[in-house]
Design brief:
mainly alpha; binds fe (ii) ion; 234 residues; globular
Length: 234
């Protein structure tokens, strides 16, 4: 179903009752529009759209206009439904291959960028570069064990013939960790002016900022899919 058809079917009653999660999962265009409007789809997906809009100070009429505009946009490149697998096992396999593995690689690669960049720009821009690196390392230090716990405990628990009693608790703790990661992502985004390339940037600094921007996107996707697709199944 095209996004424009979906929007016209969003009756007043549905607008008042639908959750952010359900709307964001309908089409990536809606998700992008909600995020742009300041409505958090990753960690606030369970909220009703109406309440989330109030929290973000977006008037209902304005939000309806935003959604109507979003429905008229072309499909989001890469915003396909490839995570929609026919079984939980395949979904988790998809997650391992297209989320966990690339994230480990990304963390290792970004760390390496800082060494030559500090050598070249450390004297003039060492304070800000150190701050970026420190914030990045906090994310990596928190996220790597998070991924490892998901692989060792969470995913096997979802696949167990008899789900363990603490499955919901395992999800709740991962959700808390997601919140903490989101806070750190907001900080690094603010520090880098949303990954805007600084005027002094050489090719390596440009590449670092691009990597950080991509990391931000990957982590938000990880959090969105787990909070809104995986955890509700616990
Ligand atoms: Fe996670």
């Amino acid at each position: 179903m095209a996004a424009s058809q979906i929007e016209t079917e969003l009756s007043t009653e549905e607008f008042n009752t639908i959750s952010v999660r359900d709307l964001a999962l309908r089409d990536p265009r809606f998700r992008l529009a909600l995020e742009k409007a300041g409505i958090d789809c990753c960690c606030g997906g369970g909220c009703r759209l109406k309440d989330a809009a109030k929290e973000a100070a977006v008037p209902p009429d304005e939000l309806r206009r935003i959604l109507r505009d979003a429905a008229e946009q072309p499909a989001v490149p890469g915003g396909n439904d490839d995570w929609k697998c026919d079984s939980l096992e395949r979904f988790l396999e998809y997650f391992m291959n297209f989320h966990h593995k690339p994230l480990y690689e990304k963390f290792s690669r970004i760390e390496l960028y800082f060494i030559p960049i500090m050598e070249k720009h450390g004297r003039e821009h060492g304070v800000e570069l150190n701050a970026f690196q420190h914030e990045f390392q906090k994310i990596a230090t928190e996220m790597v064990p998070h991924l490892q716990t998901e692989e060792a405990k969470l995913f096997p628990a979802f696949l167990a013939p008899e789900p363990p009693e603490d499955l919901a608790d395992l999800c709740r703790r991962r959700e808390e960790e997601h919140l903490s990661i989101r806070r750190k992502l907001r900080r690094i985004a603010a520090m880098t002016c949303h990954y805007r390339i600084p005027p002094y940037a050489c090719a390596a600094v440009e590449a670092l900022f691009e990597e950080l921007r991509e990391l931000d996107k990957m982590l938000k996707e990880h959090i969105f899919l787990q909070n809104n697709v995986l955890f509700p199944r616990a």
